[in-house]
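MODEL INPUT / OUTPUT PAIR
PAIR INDEX: 1
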Amino acid sequence: MKQLTGSESRLLLTVLLTCILGVAASCTEQKNPTAPTLKTKAKQDADQQRLSQDPAAVWQQFLAVNFAGDQACADCHRKEYEAHQRSGHSNTAVRMQESALAESLVKAGDYQDSRRDQKWIFETSDGDFLVKDEKHAAMPPLPVSWLLGSGTHAQTAIAVDERRQKGVELRWSYFANQKGLGLTPDHERFDEYNRNSIECFGRPMQAADVLACLGCHMTVGPPPGAPFRAEFFIPNVGCERCHGPRKQHVELAKIGRGHESKPLINYASAEQYIAACAQCHRDENNLSANSQPNELVRFQPYGLKKSLCYLNSNGKLSCAYCHDPHDATSHNRVQYIKQCQSCHQAAEHSTVCPVKPQGDCIECHMPAVEWTAGIRFHDHWIRKPGS
């Protein structure tokens, strides 16, 4: 199979998820790569007719045939699997009603909005988690669909109207440093709102907004035009988000032929690596003209690509140079400094810091910036102090 590079790798899943639907039914019976099952034409016609009448079945069949799931990777890639389970990527999307936060909110009962004269009431009914405005009895309770974020820093809830393909980002989010709810970032601009619209609950989201939001917390989502049903998503950023669908590889590996299924995505350069991360961690393509420093701190690929360390690395410095892409973010400052010193040492064609050669490189050259609510991130723009 051809290895994909550059923009091809970034478009791989989109192409797979849109183009393969028309032939998904014909690909589902080859469960053993060495012994395909023969079917009668009548049975094939019956299956095709069933699938043509039920697009949901087509999509779910496509997922089952092509995606193996994280657990399937564990047999051969145990170290990477266990590292991934420690990471925020593995736990960044959960159905709201199944979350620990939902349970604690229902137990608490209510929450006073920090900027509006609203008190939110939390309850469950028929398996749904509901939120309603205590002072606006005419506004029906809103079923909340997903809780997004690992909780390392924060978690934000969204409600999705599956049929109309719209949604709303709730005004309240959970902040780990506060051990409780606070205003969802950037929701100050919705202090003034139409009380009888969806703005009552938070930021309105069109279809593109919903997909962009969910897309960065999922391995894969529904094909274009499909309803945003929960079963159409594979929650969390799993192995196959970055390595592509690997069911064929897993099945072949069981009979010692895993090498025959070539990688679908090839990270051949730092540029391609950073582009993959930037799909969610964002780069210059996501900037707006009025982006502020506290907003840019969330654009780590953008910061890294501005750095002379990256520009002068001859295509070698990527996110993975300092971060294990499978594991939770390390806070081992000593190890990060060693990474800096691996290039910046007393040698020809190398630059040693003239101020503090043995100091804390990170604190001076990539300081933490407050994003919101006391949460601080490093913007990854490696620069001289004061730049």
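PAIR INDEX: 2
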Amino acid sequence: MAKGTPSKSPNWILHMKDKSTLIFAMCCLLGCYVPAGWAQLRFNVYSGGYFNITDYAGYTAPEGGHRFHIQYQGQDINEPQWGIRARINGPIRPESGQNISGLPFPAEKLGFQFTHDGGERPTLAEIGATMATIPFNALGETILIDQSNVPIRYQSPYGGSMQFHLYFTMHVAGGAYLDQMKNSAAYQIIVYSVPITFTLYDHAGNILGSQDVVYRVQVNQTLTGAPSVEPVYGLEVLGEAREGTLEFGNVNNYMGGVSMAYHDGLKVNANTGYAVAVKTVGPEMVSQTDRQATLPVSVVNLRLQPGSNPPQSGNYTEVALSDGYQVLFTTNTGRDVPQFFNIVYSTAANDERLLKARSGTYTTVVLYQLLPR
């Protein structure tokens, strides 16, 4: 599975037959303006275009033709830890005709990369934005800027404005897969529509602005060059980890907490530094037996451990699940072979939220993301 691609599986499930039995099952999936008085924060995306693939090497859009423009007009703004994410809105399908594979164009073959800024502050370096290519997720949002190191800041009692530009390019990965994306009808090109929503968020995940952009990818029947090596990034949740379960069968489970480890539950391919992040699709798990009953996803803790063939080095962090991306693991080095992690889910002892929960089956969905560094 290519880098940044969520791994498909069913929903989280939490089941309580009675007060002494609680079963919690997880299934994993591996991203205008706001008026304030007369003040305005605008987020504009100048992008889009036609990507004509004529070579097995793929396509890279020319620098300078794609940018984010963030502008504030007013007296005072201070937005710390803001971020930008992108979401591909649905499967990438041909505008007409059918390709050889019969499948959508793979989202992970599309990449985003910052190239430079406009010289205004904050700069890309001050923001802490990665300059590496970021593959798009097929499901959920793709993080372009997680949390900026510097705020969007302006203050003047007389009013005024500030603005900055962040330039980027778009990539379509090369490779033998392009043969499967050609038109099944001989001598005819094929064009795919790629609708993407770019969104600017504040530190709490509230939307500050968003804009829809449509790209078109044309794959020609005759491609020059030779197919490139398959991508070196990939993320996959394996085996029983795709349907993880935490079970509360007696009072001791509530008092002492429970945990479940899935050996080699996460597989990563990366030959450069990377991070693994995780989030849920919402802040709560919803009862399947009583739709009015909920539990916060934060009752479950998650951590990674070295598996059978782990990274050579890196930093591990345990998190309480939330609907915002949190980093579980980071490393500055990669390997040319698959790397495996154990996935460990657990709950705290004597958690009042679980002790007071109604009996039932609760569900949610988890998203894992691989972030090249």
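PAIR 2 NOTE: The chain is about 5% helix and 50% strand.
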